[in-house]
Amino acid sequence: MSNRKLRGLVFFLTMGAYFGIYWLFLDYFGNGEGTSWIYSSMQYKSQFIAFAAFSILLNMYIIYFHATNPPHPKYIMLPKRKFTMMSHIIAGSAEVIAGAMAWFCIYTGDVIVFSGYTWSMITLVCVFTAHAPSALFQTPGVFGAKGIMVPAYIGISSLHIYCAIHLAFEPESLLWIERTWITLQAYAFVRLYGRLMWKFGMIPNSTYTVGTMAGGATIIHFVIGPAGLLLFCMGIIFYIQLTKIILKPSINEYKALMEERTHSATINENVRAMWLELNTEYASSGLSEIEAAKAAFHSLDHNNSGTLDVGEIQELLISWDATPHVIQAYIDRFEHQEEIDFDCFRKTVWSIGNMQKRIPADLLRDKGLSNPELVAKAVFEFLDIDQSGFLELMELEVLLVEWGMAPYEAVDYMEHFGGDDGKISIGEFTQDMAPLWKFAYKRAQRIDDAP
Q1: How many CB atoms lie within 10 A of CB 136?
Q2: Residue-wise pLDDT tens digits, 375-403
Q3: Interatomic CA distance for residues 21 and 231, integer angstroms
Q4: 264 domain residue, yes or no
Q5: Residue 425 host element (H or E)
Q6: Which has the closest alpha carbon to 353: 387, 313, 381, 323?
Q7: For the chain, how many structural domains are there in total?
Q8: I need a labelling partner for 440 at 20 to 30 A (CA). Which of 179, 266, 293, 410 fits?
């Protein structure tokens, strides 16, 4: 069985485990019954009302954010990804409205355009036809520490589906429309905590993972109860153990599974600069990128053959404190390549950590670049450091990896757009890679706002 199929097996077994947990505590012990938070004591009722009102405001902000900010290229560069992302956003937005209307109409007995029953049916259509399937489809590519984030997203999506199944059997149940709608709010709170943590520089090495777990923790006790977070974490532990048993990851693969994968550089820049000073006659600050790459290459090429081997590249990446998934990606890329020349070294290995820096925020913020074609041209020229008039697919792969994309996905995307020559012209870049240069432009504008 292929590795991809084994990952799929782990995925669905974890989903089954979560369904088992929810059935045990919501149906077996809970008999599928419960009391709406609106009928609880004032202490809890007030918290629920505040939670619901704040959730609606958060969702309004999220809809505005998606409407005004280009999404990460990995979500829209291929048609199936773009369709899935658009379906997810539209269905999620519709479900926020339909779920709130269903709850209000069922609680008050009023009819607002439709009855509470009809609003519940609209909610179910959103969940089963678009939002839940698209959430599960996107889950393997999630940012953060995948060993935690993948099962966490499986757990939330499974809970969403589980509550919706109950709602399908009891469409006028205030309890189940409430639970289905509350589960949907996990993403809203993930965005909130992630944004706050980024803004104030909290836990900088694990911002996305911690923010996501905090978002899940916010909603889980509203649905399952006081032990909800504990049960949720049991599913994560189950996934990790299952991964070890079925996939049997190597040490590097397991480290990659547990490392924070974000839109950030993939090596320790200070360590690389120190390495260059210790192993060459130059300080990195006084050299251009190409000159620094030449100095590094010549220091590694001990026999003056003009080439390097895979073992030397691996040792180099380790000495730079490269993240495990990057080391593994380069081992996989070069495993069938006996020799690596300077051109290949510069466009792949030396580009790590440098691609983002080629796009200076102060220049891209120039008001004269409001025209899309000028923005695309500016981004292209900053990336084309050898001024060849072309960008190499390998360089763009590195950029996408720095932005948090899985290496194998970056390869797939570049092969889809790059043609047979392995190069991208300015015209191809402008027309076919709009998601990439738009995201690069927007990201460059935000760099100086970081703490």
Answers
A1: 19
A2: 788 778 777 756 678 877 666 776 776 66
A3: 7
A4: no
A5: strand 423-425
A6: 323
A7: 3
A8: 293
